[in-house]
Amino acid sequence: MPSRCGQRCQVVDVGSRLDGSTVATLRPRLHAAVETGEGDMIVDLSGLEMIDSAGLGVLVGTHRRALRAERRLVLRGVPPRVMRVLAITRLHRVLKVELSPAAVA
């Protein structure tokens, strides 16, 4: 369930898997969050252990939907393994990834 953070953002936790077995339930949750919220939509990936092409497709589709709604999709807590997948696919250039304070230092 999405939770709010102040007036200008919304956080959605995707859990431990973002793959072909979970996208059917996650996609409608993300789309509903885009349509009902306002401000930045933060997708918390801190617990993510597995992502595949179907999961990447859901993130890209949600990003496009957010842009149409004049919102911004932000990925938070991206594990190093998932960050490598985003870099290999060059999606780190398309999707906004929030850097942790440790990564900035």
Brief write-up:
It is built from four helices and seven strands. It has 105 residues and is α/β, with parallel strands linked by helices.
Structure characterization notes:
It is a single chain. The protein is an alpha/beta fold. 41% of the residues lie in helices and 21% in strands. The strands form two sheets. A five-stranded mixed sheet has the order 1-2-4-6-7. Strand 6, helix 3 and strand 7 form a beta-alpha-beta unit. Helix 1 packs parallel to helix 2. The model has no long low-confidence stretch (mean pLDDT 89).
In one word, what is the shape? Answer: globular
* Spatial order of the strands forming the largest sheet: 1-2-4-6-7
Structural class: alpha/beta
Put simply, the count of helices is 4
H/E series, N to C? Answer: EEEHEEHEHEH
Please describe the biggest sheet, giving its number of strands, its sense, and whether it closes into a barrel. Answer: 5 strands, mixed
Poorly predicted spans: none
Q: Could you estimate the helical fraction of the residues in percent? A: 40-55%
> What integer value in Å does the Rg equal?
13 Å
What's the β-strand tally?
A: 7
Summarize model confidence as the mean pLDDT: 89
Strand content: 15-25%
CA-CA gap between termini: 32 Å
